[in-house]
Amino acid sequence: MAIPLSGTPVILDIGSAYTKIGFAGEPGPRFIFPTITGTEKYKAVMVDVSARNIYVGNDAAKMRGVLKIKRPIERGAIMDWNDFYEILNYCFYSLLRIPDVSQYPVLYTEPPFLQKETKEYVARVLFETHRVKSLIMVPTPILSMFSVGLTSGLIIESGDGITWICPIINGQIVDQSVQKLTLGGTDVNQYLKNLLMREGIHIESSAVDEIIKDMKEKNCYFVLDPKNPPKKDERFSIAMPDGSTISIPHYIFHEAPEVLFQPNLVGYPISNVPQAIITSLQGIDKYYWSELLSHVVISGGNLSYSGFEERLRIELKKLLPQLGKIPKPKRQSPKTKEKAKLKSIEGSKKKQDNCPHCGVLLDLSDEKELCPNCGGRIVLPELSININTSSKKAPVIDGKLLCPHCGKEITDIDSLFCPYCGKNVESPDLEEISKKVIDEPPPAKEFAGFYESSEEILKFFVPDNLQYAIFSGATILGTLPSFQRLFITHEQFLSNSDLLYKDISEIF
Ligand SMILES: Nc1ncnc2c1ncn2[C@@H]1O[C@H](COP(=O)(O)OP(=O)(O)OP(=O)(O)O)[C@@H](O)[C@H]1O
Ligand SMILES: [Mg+2]
Description:
Nucleotidyltransferase, domain 5; 19% strand; single chain; binds magnesium ion; binds adenosine-5'-triphosphate
């Protein structure tokens, strides 16, 4: 596959279980591989015993029988920096094969609250070892939210190691009410393994963990009521890599993922996912509750099980009374909202920026149009310009707002672009929008009574592919010129490492 033009952001989403990498503007990751490394078990048989032969990703997975396999990232934390370097090398030079990395900005996805030292160290490695052109590090929940075209929402994100409950309002994470659960796909794997052992099923293979993970991904699902699961007596026959088959009782497949709703099954004295959502909301002003509950975003590979959304809805409805009455916000007209959005974009115009041609830091306060250093044009496109110029009006069919470019349904009527194809979209006139569409609640400011039932409020946003949702958010965001202006260069990083903490909400 051809390498995109220089300047196209490279996306690195290095997760505890899987690494997803590619380029902004592309529909999905170019490569996805297990985040593992392998070194030879038997050094004595090697010709050069001092050489450290290290295999990464699928190369390591294929040879796992003769390798000592390591997982350098555990529950989102980098545990082995040498292996992390190897993974980056593998991404840039073996897979993406970018001839000159210094021509490419990098969008690196990071877990929320990444330690300052770790964050700056990752930046140093990317700048100093790989000499990337520029860099931005974005917390994954922001990207999950962006993958469904929202700028506010309650993000439920669960990967292999951690589950995050992360409220975001106008592009900003509400730090004090983020909930972090040490619970992820790896715990489901462990519980599935325990259940199999309880049934006397032992899988004899060096790839036992892979076999269990694969079994989980293909077969596990949620039942609506775990106390009364649908009766399925039959056993399930699963083929093993050595050609044998094992027979597994059916209940195991809906019992294993129950750890998300009952973490005590794996011995963790922590909240389950719906309880953590309630705790998160309790830490936020109630004015925002309905806005958040009507934009619940589900993301991360570990929530891909069929039935998760329905089950979460049921469990949440049971717990919502803990919040008391949920206030109904007073509705503003979408027109007023659009004005407010435009104003905030104008208000956030930068006073300084780098020349897009030569990179020199410029003083923009006098609104100059040409770079005094290289003479290049420096008026960079603003997001607000796109709203009314190059965008097409979104048609409304059967009360649904459709993207004029790709035809998919756009659920957020305030969205300035399509969450699926990323192209600009102009909102239709107010009268064109059916009641159903304009009933979307705006950000709460004043009360207009209370909701009678949770049915009225709860609304879920589920990306097409949960495991790639973070990547999809990055690929859309990475193509926006207003976002690209937020990347920082090595020089900027050296002069002020705090620039890594840029508030990206200014572009929303
Ligand atoms: N179809 C599926 N059904 C159930 N689980 C799945 C499915 N696909 C992937 N998973 C699980 O999701 C987890 C990986 O998800 P994801 O790629 O989002 O996590 P990660 O980025 O590697 O980890 P983290 O973000 O926690 O560091 C693994 O535990 C994997 O087994
Ligand atoms: Mg992840």
